[in-house]
Amino acid sequence: MARAKIALIGSGQIGGTLALLAGLKELGDIVLFDIADGVPQGKALDIAEAAPVLGFDSAISGASSYEAIAGADVVIVTAGVPRKPGMSRDDLLGINLGVMEQVGAGIRTHAPDAFVICITNPLDAMVWALQKFSGLSPKKVVGMAGVLDSARFRHFIADEFKVSVEDVTAFVLGGHGDTMVPLTRYSTVAGIPLTDLVKMGWLTEARLEEIVQRTRDGGAEIVNLLKTGSAFYAPAASAIAMAESYLRDKKRVLPAAAQLDGQYGVSGRYIGVPIVIGAEGVERIIEIELDAREQAMLDKSISAVEGLVEACVKIVPALGA
Ligand code: A3D
Question: What are the positions of the active site (predicted)?
Answer without folding.
Answer: 176 (proton acceptor)
